From TrEMBL:
It comes from the Bacteria. The lineage of its organism: Bacteria, Bacillati, Actinomycetota, Actinomycetes, Mycobacteriales. It comes from Rhodococcus wratislaviensis NBRC 100605. Keywords: Membrane, Transmembrane, Transmembrane helix. This is DUF1206 domain-containing protein. InterPro entries: DUF1206 (IPR009597).
Length: 278
């Protein structure tokens, strides 16, 4: 029985390995970085609009909704959905094979490899969520993620267990944001690249990762604050974090800085499409 299980596992690993040898699969997966770049640039644009007093949701749903409203936008969203699914499947392949599947660099049983596999699985979940959101807006059924988050938070706050879960979600968001800040400040993101990118890549990645990390961590803090204040309207994710930033002293200036940082991450995503180690 154990031998059969081992054979099945090895067979699955070989099948995944063959899949990552496909140049077409890799190119479509890389397109996920391109679409991510566009989404971040749209979010940056919405943040600038907020800085100058116009409305909008400064998160993924706001960006996808803005794109869906443009001529040809829904077609682009269908393309984005396919690219996000491909990237999610690629991350699942890295979960099985280890990081950088085309380089055969993953080690079995290695602690670092296990951590990298866990991160790859987390990214797979994120990209599947992106794909689902793109599908919703492409098919005309997209909704504000901020409103959905607030509604779900309100339901969870009705029980003690739900409140604990929300606090855990907030702490996880803070940890993810902190990781982004660390990755940017330490310039570890350069390890994800191959070849010789432009010298502009380093400042783009540094600013982009730190800015995105601050926004994600801010969203996590707001979730925890919402729980202790019994105010689910504060737990609206990235949009809530950005708008809270705008209401602070010198809020307009801070929003413009946030927009520049998110835009830097968007441009860096285009670099990833070309130079990322896959």
């Amino acid at each position: 029985m154990a031998q059969n299980e081992t054979n099945r596992a090895n067979g699955m690993s070989r099948a995944v390995d063959r899949a990552t040898d496909s140049n077409t699969f890799e190119r479509v997966a890389r397109a996920g970085h391109v679409m991510s770049g566009f989404v971040h640039l749209l979010i940056a644009y919405i943040i600038v609009q907020l800085a100058f007093g116009t409305g909008g949701n400064a998160d993924q749903s706001g960006a996808l909704g803005a794109l869906a409203a443009k001529p040809g936008g829904r077609l682009v969203l269908w393309v984005a959905m396919v690219a996000f699914i491909a990237m999610a499947l690629w991350r699942l392949a890295e979960t099985v094979l280890g990081p950088h599947a085309t380089e055969n660099s993953g080690g079995d049983g290695d602690e670092t490899s296990l951590l990298d596999r866990a991160k790859a699985f987390g990214l797979a979940v994120v990209y599947f969520a992106f794909a689902f959101s793109a599908y919703q807006f492409a098919s005309g059924g997209g909704k504000s993620s901020g409103q959905q988050n607030a509604g779900m938070s309100a339901r969870l706050m009705e029980s003690g267990g739900g409140k604990i879960l929300l606090v855990v979600v907030g702490l996880v968001a803070i940890a993810i944001g902190g990781y982004h800040i660390y990755k940017g400040a330490s310039k570890n993101f350069l390890d994800d690249l191959k070849g010789t990118p432009s010298k502009l890549v380093e400042p783009l990645g540094l600013v982009g990762y730190v800015a995105k990390g601050l926004v994600i961590a801010g969203a996590g803090v707001l979730v925890i604050v919402a729980v202790f204040n019994a105010d689910p309207s504060k737990a609206t994710g990235l949009d809530g974090a950005v708008k809270t930033l705008g209401s602070a002293p010198f809020g307009q200036f801070l929003l413009i800085l946030a927009a520049l940082g998110i835009a830097a991450y968007g441009v860096y995503s285009f670099v990833m499409a070309r130079y990322a180690r896959m």
